[in-house]
Amino acid sequence: VQLQASGGGLVQAGGSLRLSCAASGRTLSYYVMGWFRQAPGKEREIVASILWSGVGTHYADSVKGRFTISRDNAKKTMYLQMNSLKPEDTAVYYCAAKIRGRQNYDYWGQGTLVTVSS
Hints:
Layout: E1 2-6, E2 9-12, E3 17-24, E4 31-38, E5 45-51, E6 57-59, E7 67-72, E8 77-82, E9 91-99, E10 107-108, E11 112-117
Parallel strand pairs: 2-11
Antiparallel strand pairs: 1-3, 3-8, 4-5, 4-9, 5-6, 7-8, 9-10, 9-11
């Protein structure tokens, strides 16, 4: 599975951005897809995850109500709609994939930088 993240940029606090993660390679039917972020000097944290098939999403408490994860199966693309952005959302965002039932994410895209100015 190859993943390509895009959509990062500079935005003012309160603004919005949409990240995209294009997937290629094997079928994703049995995969869980996730968005992670890593801010300077901090550990990487999971932001949101979604089942590629079926219904199921998960959000970190810090983004609930502001971020929405979704996917387009036909385009093999995952999205992260980020609204009401805060300076503390500034980070490099990564998309990742893992097979259902596995603990660790096995496939990672390159990061895309999101900078939120106050």
